[in-house]
Amino acid sequence: MSQKIVPVILSGGSGSRLWPVSRSSYPKQFWPLLSKHTLIQETALRGARAGLADPIVICNAEHRFIVAEQLRDVGVKNARIVLEPVGRNSAPAIAAAAFLVAETDPDAVLWIMAADAAITDEAALYSALEHAVAAAAQGRIVTFGMKPTRVETGYGYIESGAPLSSLEGVYEVSRFVEKPDAVTAEAFFRDGRYLWNSGMFVTQAGVFLSEIQTFEPAIHEHVGQAVRARRSDLDFDRLDDASFRQAPDISVDYAVAERTKRAAVVPGTFGWSDIGSWDALWELTSKDEAGNATFGDVFLDDARNCYVRSDGIVATVAGVEDLIVVVTQDAVMVSHRDRAQDVKHMVSRLKKAGRKEAVAHNRMYRPWGFYESLIQADRFQVKRIVVEPGQKLSLQKHFHRAEHWVVVGGTALVTRDADQIMVRENESIYLPLGCVHRLENPGRIPLTLIEVQSGPYLGEDDIVRIEDVYSRN
């Protein structure tokens, strides 16, 4: 493709319908649900395999190091990672990317896609992309409409209109339709003119900004200010907080797609799915002769058409049909496949009950590695901490807890007040309450240690950061 095409990857979702694997702290785009690669890795690789420009990834600040690490792991080294100070839905996020691209080339085409969708036929996708780019070069805002393969109430729809005479494979958009009820969805399936709304868009940066200025001038004003006042944060572009917060919270569908006269659609059959439920994942996953899809340490006996996944302890399922069973280290979810969309309601109940499992995993990833809680009690907690080679935690202190570190793998360089101490495997060190301390891994292998915290309050917010190489507060 001779036209410059910039993939824009939106990575702001939490994916609550795939709980308990997908949670706000580590949502579904960061999990390998269908292959050895995670969903965001697969999304970025689609652009790389097509020889397109380096991608722009829009994400929240909490996930920035996860995004950077996952992209580096698959060789996507020059992605531009843009940090939203607060979630404002897809229209402001896309506008930010469009402003950035338009600074150097307003005629460049944006290929806008979510970080957490699946594509099974990339050759067909690239063919559809060629048609969409040709339409975008003529000033169209193009979306991909998926030809329905079943009656589906979980997707929005696009009613396709007349073909555009000057563009092969591209049609006018008659209208966008909200998620229908079952009767309407069945009528759409029989009709043939209705397509699933994939949420992917192809448009020139300047065209998108012109339409945003027409329909949502507040987005144009405030996001433009946020981009112009952005600052560099290590390898990231951090949008200005005060300006971006003033942008309306609205999706690109409502802001532009349903109002513009430039809308067009390219019908496709390239195996798209937004993986919006465990049942959708069952559909996409290879199955045994009884229709069961499994992942992890799973044993089945006389089970049929089930999806069973374990990311923790062994899971056994016997004598049942059409169930979803998902096991993690700290939660178990069981649902009938017909009720897969209802998982989000249970997440809402957990949030109202104040359960941390609704939003956070037991294993919490940080820019230096990760930690996970092993034992929790009233006045003590035991954690496993893994620090990657060359990385270091912040220089910090605590007001309510003391810590004891036992190195079980690798070598630690520990700062304790004015001292620096090398702690090797099978050695330990005590950090009294209030001391200023830091943990570093000076070696070439991961550092693993067991941390025992003791004190009247053990919350993660009992941290006073004095110095931090990752620009955290």
Can you walk me through this structure?
The chain has 473 residues and is of the alpha+beta class. The protein has 3 domains: 5-268, Spore Coat Polysaccharide Biosynthesis Protein SpsA, Chain A; 278-352, no CATH class; 363-467, Jelly Rolls (Sandwich). The protein has 11 helices and 26 strands. The chain has helices at residues 39-49, 64-73, 90-102, 122-136, 182-191, 205-215, 217-228, 241-245, 252-257, 278-284, 343-352, and strands at residues 5-11, 56-60, 80-84, 109-114, 141-146, 157-163, 171-177, 194-204, 231-233, 236-238, 263-268, 293-301, 307-318, 323-327, 332-336, 363-366, 369-376, 380-387, 395-397, 402-409, 412-416, 419-423, 428-431, 437-440, 447-454, 464-467. Strands 16-17-18-25-20-23 form a 6-stranded antiparallel beta sheet, with no helix packed on it. A 5-stranded mixed beta barrel has the order 5-8-6-7-11. α3 (90-102) crosses α7 and α6 (205-215) packs across α7 (217-228). The longest helix has 15 residues, at 122-136.
